[in-house]
Write a structure and sequence with these properties.
By secondary structure, this protein is an alpha+beta fold. It has two domains: about 1-25 and about 195-355, no CATH class; about 35-185, no CATH class. It is built from eleven helices and ten strands. The chain has helices at about 1-15, 20-25, 50-55, 130-150, 185-190, 210-220, 270-280, 300-310, 310-320, 325-345, 345-355, and strands spanning about 40-50, 65-70, 75-85, 100-105, 120-125, 155-165, 175-180, 195, 240-245, 250-255. Strand 2 (about 65-70) and strand 3 (about 75-85) form a beta hairpin. It is globular and about 60 Å long. Mean pLDDT is about 90; it is low at about 1-30.
Amino acid sequence: MIHHVACLVAAVVLHASPSLAQQAEAPRAVTDMPLFSSHNVLTFTIKAPLKQIMKQRGQQSEEFPGVLALAQGDTISFNIKVRTRGKTRLEKTVCPFPPLRLNFQKNSVAATLFEGQDKLKLVTHCKDNSEVYQQYVLLEYLAYRTYNVLTDFSFRVRLARITYEDTESDRAPVTAYGFLIEDKDILAARNGVDFLEVLNVPINLVEVDHLALIGVFEYFIGNTDWSAFRPEPDKDECCHNTKPIGLPGGPVYSVPYDFDLSGLVNTRYAYRLYKVNLEMMGLHSIRERLYRGLCRSHPELPSVFALFNEKREEIYDLYRRQHDLGEKVLKKTLKYFDAFYKVIHDEAKTRQAFRDGCRG
């Protein structure tokens, strides 16, 4: 009963919100943003009071002034504001160096690489001077790139080599991989829809083909930490590690993000933090796959499997060509993907994984 009431409330919000309806009818802004039009690795430096910033570990963390110096021919500097963000990785015991949000001044980015950008999420390296954690960054970045191969309804990302300089301490500069994530409103506008600020997403409004795709993709990377319909227990917006975009009356497309607890990335902290959830689902390892898609997606599964087969070599090549991805990590990753393809090419295994294990 509670579930039906929640869905009904969300449906009312989706249909009755005048601001969303107005957005849907408004002319679209230019969405061909230069920042995400290339996959070349960026090089830039962030200069800010990092020690003060790292002390801010709450959801309403304070912004601090800083400078982003972009090495692109001549160095171009931007005044920015920096704050911490995230949830799991915001905890100091998980990531001494948490993810950041960069807030640009709109009037300073015109005719530059950051044109059209305002606030950008930056996924950082989590721990200084750790090659293992550098591999995590590359694998999570490639998870986003993998989903880009499958659909345009996906967050674009840009890999960077970033040097962090603390302006108020004698801490030595640190250089590491990180990546920037496309803003949700730009993602939506690029696809001709809107970001939907709702509490829940009614199942009947979700685009069915895309719902099947997201379920199979999350299974492919071994991720169970997501929901296309409901928020996290302590959040007041939908959804858990997905963002709903679409039109007020539907269809709605749930776009996944945040893959550090997936079997693909296989972080050291994932099993410890997610152990109770895994046990509830009957899983013994973060690498063990479980399909969390809906049973109503069954008719669309063959076409989704066909898409994965069609894109298999393109996906594998993303990992093979990724500079600095370790040889052992690459071999282990492709073997993990091979196991997925063995399942979808075996009728009995497909039935067991996707039909017997689906959610009603």
